[in-house]
Each structure stands twice: as C-alpha cells, then as structure tokens.
Amino acid sequence: MGWFPLKLLNVGVRRERGAVFLKKKNAELSRKAAGEGMVLLQNTKNALPIKKGAAVALFGIGQIKFHLYGGGSGSVPNASENINLLQGMENKASGGRIFLYKPLIESYSAYIQMDGRGEMPLSEELLKKAVKNADTAIFTISRYASEGSDRKAAKGDYYLSDKEIDMLEKINRAGFKHVAVVLNIPGVMDTSWISRYPDMSVLISWMPGMEGGNAVADILCGDVNPSGKLVDTFAASYDDYPSSRNFSQHTDYVNYEEDIFNGYRYFETFDPKHRRIIYSFGYGQSYTTFHLSKIKLSESEKHVKITVKVTNTGKLSGKEVVQVYCGAPQGKLGKAARQLAAFRKTGLLKPGRSQVLSMSFPITDMAGYDDTGRIKKSAWLLEKGDYRFFIGNSLLDADQRGVQRIIKVNATKIIRQLAEHAAPVRLLKRLLADGSYERLRMDTAHKKMKTKSANDLTGSGEKSTVELRFSKKKAKIMLQDVAGKPAKLDAFIEQLEDDQLAGLSRGTKATVAGGTGGIGNLNEYGIPNVQTADGPAGLRITNPATAWPMETLLASTWDPELVRAVGKAAGKEALRNSVDIWLAPGMNIHRDPLNGRNFEYWAEDPLIAGKMGAALIEGVQSQGILAEIKHFAVNNKETNRKESDSRVSERALREIYLKGFEIAIKESRPRLVMSAYNLVNGIRTSENKDLLTHILRNEWGYQGVVTSDWNNTAAFYKEILAGNHVRMPSGSATADHLMIALQKGLITRTDLQNNVRPILKMILQTQAFKNYRPAEQAPIAISVSEATRIRAADFIDASAGVNIRSFPGKDSGLKSAQAGNGEWMRFIIFVEKEGTYSFTPRISTRYDHQIFDIFLDGRKIGRSIQEKATGGCHNWKNGETIDLRLPEGRHTLKLTFHTTEEKINGFELAYNGTNVNNEV
Ligand code: BGC
C-alpha cells in the first residue's frame, strides 16, 4: 500500500501582472479630484485663500484625526498614504507658503496621544498666544460614517457638539483677522450656525481620500480655486427633510411617503422661497466671480440644446458649473417644481477669459411615470403644456434669474408603455405636488412576504423532472473552447453536473489578499476563480492602494471627465493587483442625511448619480476590469439593513430610485450589478423578479450578472429564480441548499443552466480568464490490484473555506484539509474497473458525530459518519469504512462536510468486489 504517485497538478496560475504601483500618478489624481469637489460655502470677507506668508493657527482635533474615507466597504485600510489636514498644511509651511503656530499643534498632538475624547478644551492663555502669533485661524470639524450603522440627528453628529459650539465662539471672539472652518464630513450636517458668523469662511472638504490634507491645503492657500458644487440640499434643520418623518419610524420598514419629492424636488415644490434652505442644491462659491451670458435654448430633433457663455470676471483663474433645470407642467400626474436636466463644467478660465458651454438632452427625459393610470397606467408620459427652463450656477441662482425659455408640448405623448412591476403593497399614502396625500390601494392579492432565512426551503415545488444521474461523458469542452464561439456555450453548460452548476452559482475563495471572494473556480473545465474587491473608495485589499475621495465629493466636481479618469486609474490598479471585478460604484440616492452609507453614494439627484456612475464604470471597464454597481435598489438606510422593507411607489422607483442605475447601465454597461440587503415592497431585492428580471433585464436590456450582497439573508434558490445569479461571498452556510432545492423540485436543472449562462459570459470577459492556464487534467487512477490512497491536498478544486495545512505527529509530512459545514473538495478519478470499493478516510476531530457526504458526478453515493472524537485535533485515525460503487471511467468525486470541525488527511479506496448499490 502506498501513496498513488500523483503528477503534481499544475493548478491554473495567473500570469504575473507586475506589481509596480503607480503611486505618484494616482496620488496626483486623487489630490486633483479632491480639490475639484470641495465646496466653499462662505467667504464673505475673503478670509480665504490665506495670504502668502500669513501665520496660521490650526484648531480642532480634526486637523489630525482627519477622516480621509469612511468605514466598511468604502474604506481603504491599506491606503498607500494618509495625509491629514495638519500634514497638508505643514507641507505648505515647509515650502514657505505660510507659517504655522507650533505650540497649538503640539497641544493638539499631545491631547490626541493621551487619547483625549471630543474637542480639546482650549485654555484662554493658549488662545491669546495664538492670536498674538497668527492672523488666520482654521478650525477643523470632523464627522465619520460607516457601513453598518446610521448617523444620528444629535449633537456631535448631525449637529455641532457643545464643545464645538464653545470653540467656535472662542475662536471667533478671540480677535483673529480671519477665521475659516473646514467641515470634514461624510454628508449633510447642520449648517444653521454658519449665519451666526458672517465673517467666517467655511469650506466642505468631505472625506477627501488619501491626499485629502494636501488637497485642502491647496484650496486654503489658494493653489487651487474651489469649484465644487453641492449635490444635496442643506436644509435649515434635519426635520425639514420630508424623509425625517419616517426614516427612523420603524426598524422593519420605511414608508417613502414623500414619493418623488426627494431633496431639492421637495424644497423647490413646497418651499419655493427657500425659507427652509441654507445652501441650495448646486451651490458652491469660488475665489473668483463668473458672469453667464448669451444663454440660448433651442429645440431640434426632439433634443433641447443649450449654449451658455461663461466669463471669468474676477482676479483668479477658476472653473464654473452651469446647471439647467426644468419646471414641467403640472398636468395630471403633478410634477416636482424643478428637475435637473443638464449640467456642464468649464475648463480652468483665466481672469477675463470666456468659454461657451453646450449641452443637450432629449425632451423625453422630462417625462413622468404614471403608475396609477391617471392618463395611461404603467407608461412614461410627456404631458402637454409648457416646459420652463431655468439656467444658473446653482439652483437658487437659476430660480432667481427666472424662466429662460419655454418649450411647448402640444399633445400628451406616451414615451414608453411598460407594465406594473415592484408595486407597493403596504405603502398607504404618498405626497402629491399640491401638498395633499394620495391614498394608495393595498394590494392584497399581491401579498408577498419576506422569507425567513437563507436556508428556507419550505416552498412546495414540482418534483424535478430531471433525474439526478451519472452524466454520459462525451468529449470534454473547456471554457477556452467557448471563447469566441458563443454557440458552444450551451453544449459547455450541458456537460456540467448539477452540483457544478450549483457551485458556479456560489461565490468562491478569495485569492487576492484582503479581497472579497471570487466567482467561478471550476478548474476541471477551465473556469478560473475571478476575483472581486471593494469599492467604492479604492481597492480594499491587503496591498497598498489608492484611496480616492468619497463618491459625494466626486459628484460635487460636476465633472464626469474627471470621474472617468478616476475610474480608469482605479481599473488600472485593479489590474495590477489581479482583481477582476471592482465592487463600485455605489449608486443609491441620498434620501436622508442620516443614512450611514451616503458617502458611498453620489447625490440626491438621479441624473448626477447616473452620469457620474456611467463615467466611473466606463473608466474602470476601459482597463478590462469589470465594474459591479451596487446596491440594487432602494438601499437608503443601515439600521436593520438586512430586514428593512423600503415601501415605495412605482413612480418614485422609476423616476428617482432606479433612475440613476438605469442611466449608468444604459450608458456604460457595467458587467455586474449587486442586489441590496433590503426588501423592496415586501420582497428581498435578491429574490425580486420584478426588479432583477422584468425591469433590469427585460426593460433595460441588461445582460450581465447579478450577485447578492455579501452574507444576505435571502433564500438561495429563490434568488436564482428571480435573476440573482451568484450568492456571495461563498454561500457556505447554504452549500447544499441548491442541491436540496433541486431534489425537492423547487428549482430545475434548466434553471441552474440558465443561471450560469450569464456568469460564464461574464467570466469570459475577465482578465483572469484571459490569463488562465487550466490545470493539466491528471485523474487519479483507482486501481484494482492495490488500494489507492488519495491525499486530501490533491483535490482539483475546493470551496472557499477549505484550508490545507501541514500537521505534525504520526501522519506528519502529509497535508490535511480542514473543512467547516458546507465546505467541499473535489477529486478527479479514473476507475479502472467498475465495482465496489471500500472507502476509508483518515481523519481527526475533537468532536463526536462528524459527517461528510460523498458525491460521484454530482450524485450522492455515500455518507461517512465519525461517531466519536478521535481525541484531539491532530490525532489521526482511520474513520469508518463504507462501500461505494464506482463505475468505470473518469469521474468527479466530491466530499461535502456537514459538521464544523473535521480534518481529513486523505482517503483510501480498495477494490472489493462487484455487488453494492449506491442508494443513499
Ligand atoms: C457591502 C457591499 C460590499 C460587500 C463586500 C457588504 O457588506 O454591503 O457593499 O461590497 O460587503 O465587502
């Protein structure tokens, strides 16, 4: 008896892509983007930019604890650098641009080293000294946000803390010539206090990525002229946002009663005099001034065309953003008073120079969605009447300039007839344009309820008509044979066993250090393990990576070209790190300022979100890296995020919450979409056929893959039926779920085959596939003359959690596999002669009653039970011997574990005659 002399398996190795990190270039781009998206809110007395040679006193712990990115998927834990505000200012000081008042910095550093909480108490003495030694004071106020929790409408978060108010008072009274505040924030916060300090300047730096400190210093010192504009409305108080009424009302659901009136759409409709707005959508100042002239708006070939001349009338070079808003006729649907229709940013204009900006969009973009049949149910309608256009450098400015042009539509037109999908079942009312609420019917026939857990297999399906069977082996087709020959895809899929189809529908092991898992990994058929990594702030991996500014900052640049460049650089970096799929961009709409993930999303407006998303995707995919946009859809709250139901009308879905996705998908064709954790109108998004199949695929023509969000709580087989192709990250809690569903007839082999088709098409487009050399197929010969021992480590592929380690002791020198519940490993064997074989595993376990199942070509042929612990985790013993019938020829043999901690070192197969049947 001896170990079968195995030829070393040449497991597919990816060609090394070079690890040179384009640190400098990316750092420059990250800094540039950061500088373009920061928003100057107030600068009445021109405290900014700081005069050359001025002495500056830096206040606030935020100068050191400066947040460059948020928490969770939107963090970049191994950012290749992290420049806080203090370092950025020190860099300017070392170049002689400014002087910093050191004793103050020393105090803050010491306070932070002592782990001081909240703002540092400021002694009168230190303040006096600072005033004596510096003419400009900069106070940094920081806020943080992270995936997994929401922000709070409380002091120290949405509102200033008492300590911060105290600091503001002290600094403003101290006698500095100039005072400026930097708001290092992940989204909207209260700004009502700014009006108490009219002479103070205020800059929003957002969470600006790894070069953030340098980028803020560039603006504070005037090396960069701010040109960012808000992409969210800053209201007088949190309670002014209509969403505030129901955001925290219930943990299990949110009623989107404000309907289409999100953000500025609400304020413009119900507060046209801007009484409840502090900073309007589209607002942002510059160190220079601009004049808009020669505004022309015309209509031709169903497109509205606009040209505007922008002249820099100030003394510094700068950039301006022109925004076009539409006021559609109220008609029968009722409309928001304004809707962003187009926007464009100038290049850097020198003082006195002008640029003519042109924009254009189809008038049909102004259509509304009739979800209740006021005119024509389930249709996009362009209602007749006057379409008024407003143009300015902010929404307020556009309003103040008044109507620039009216375009008349003479008769109501149906733009596109669709069907009812994802309709609300529990939303009782919604806001209308006249301020009243419309009662919505409760659709009881439609009462779909959320399922209980990932393992829910309670549905009653038809018994599968497809027999679980040994496949008849034909000449094997490898995925490489399908490349360039799509007609072969069906035959390729046909040859896969049921459990292989199921395996392709689950995520796989991460091979990129710090990555988020893979897809594919069926080496036997030449399918590589394509790798994913987060997004959207940068690559969240173990290698050093660029941290880009948060999405809201990027959107505040109003510059899709710049965002495309960021996407391109991020794609290039993914390529160098063997990441095939970047989990970005986040596409959800800012509905409420407290959503903990707003920083991973663009804006309150779907046009901005859609255009920015499209630009980023295009940049990423231009490098051969696939973008996965997320979280589809209506993911606007973190509290109880896996169980919360977003109850929303079809109209608000179409016009607001899906619109950004639709624009990005149609314009840039991302290859993957990630469904969300939440439910939409009672159905988990990953089980939601209306969303994933009817709207995404059938209406929008999306052809790519949908994956679940990581570790969601949906029922796996229902996801497949709905059009959610891959369960991420590994679905290990539900490893045999699909096979059971198949046996119960809840899902068919055809469903699984259809499911893997887009997955394989996607894999064919990855770098992993292009660089893949499939393993040489070396089946392990099962001999009749002597027992064959197979090492666990010689599997051809295995699930994500299988670990191969060397253990000391009696069996030392051998590799062992340890597998948790649901994990598996697969071997390729060649049986010389059909017959019965004794199967004896070599195992060790600390626990009684350990089980694993044995599958041959996808069919269960045996179960190995170890009743008693073997006496320690390195105490190897031969397990129970069972008989298996093995047909002649080439087969896959798969071991699937059912218990938590069993280690297997290998197994032995000894020919034993001819008469056992594999009925389990
Ligand atoms: C997040 C996703 C992320 C995934 C992988 C989930 O918790 O919601 O946005 O891409 O984890 O890290």
From TrEMBL:
SUPFAM superfamilies given in the database record: (Trans)glycosidases, Beta-D-glucan exohydrolase, C-terminal domain, Galactose-binding domain-like
InterPro entries, per the entry: CBM6, Cellulose_deg_GH3, Fn3-like, Galactose-bd-like_sf, GH, Glyco_hydro_3_C, Glyco_hydro_3_C_sf, Glyco_hydro_3_N
Keywords, alphabetical: Hydrolase
A single GO BP: carbohydrate metabolic process
Pfam families reported in the protein's UniProt record: CBM_6, Fn3-like, Glyco_hydro_3, Glyco_hydro_3_C
Domain CBM6 stretches: 788-910
Cross-referenced Gene3D superfamilies: Galactose-binding domain-like, Glycoside hydrolase family 3 C-terminal domain, Glycoside hydrolase, family 3, N-terminal domain, Immunoglobulins
GO molecular function list: carbohydrate binding; hydrolase activity, hydrolyzing O-glycosyl compounds
Taxonomic superkingdom: Bacteria
Protein family according to the UniProt entry: Belongs to the glycosyl hydrolase 3 family.
Protein name: Beta-glucosidase
Source organism per UniProt: Sporolactobacillus putidus
